[in-house]
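so my prof wants the structure for this chain in the tokens format not the other one, which i didnt know existed until like an hour ago. anyway here's the sequence
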Amino acid sequence: MRKLLNTLYVMTESCYLTLDGENIVISDGEKKLGRFPLHTLENIICFTYKGATPALMGACAERQIGMSFFSPRGVFLARTVGKEYGNVLLRKEQYRISDDSSRSVTYARNMIVGKVFNSRWSIERTLRDHAYRVDSQKLKGISTILYETLPKIDSVCGLDELRGMEGKAAEQYFSVFDDMILNQKEDFTFIRRNRRPPLDNINAILSFAYIILAGDCANALSSVGLDPYVGFMHSDRPGRTSLALDLMEAVLFLVN
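here's what i got, hopefully its the right format
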């Protein structure tokens, strides 16, 4: 099983990142703010315009450490990408599957089953840990609907039908999302999902987390030789990491 390492967040916008041996050094002018061994890191999320040295970016790419750059206000700018890993035959097979909707739906279906299963588990975990603080009957009703959706998804044969079922399942989940927010309700109240731009604190957090997760998924796919831009459920679009978005469907609610 793959070992999960640390993610380093660099939040001070005047910082600059450099490489010293096997360590990342974070500096603010002449002042050294921190030093971290590269072998303990899996991702580096940097909110600074000053950025990092090419030597550090190259070292991270060589070690398959994800490095993403955001503006100080949280706008995604770029991520480092190293040399291709894996077998070209693997990527060619990925392209063939992506071009064949009858084969693509098999992989897409499994990802959506994972998404619905994990979203249901998120509700069940809330019921288990906070039964006296939530409307149990309401949450149990949505959990049952998601449970009954799983075998239906597993028998879907077309991508359009699968996308429709995924959308309905997500709508059910988000109908009780606000009920599962139990603290700081004055600041974090969920009414509905919105984006581009997000219109409230919860949607801003969700959109920001999705961007970080998409980068993590793209790095993971690249590290095993797959092309993160060629997906099975999400259609091809210039600049979009479609396979990373596919993978996100299965892991999205594991951290809720």
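also thought this was worth mentioning. The mean pLDDT is 85.
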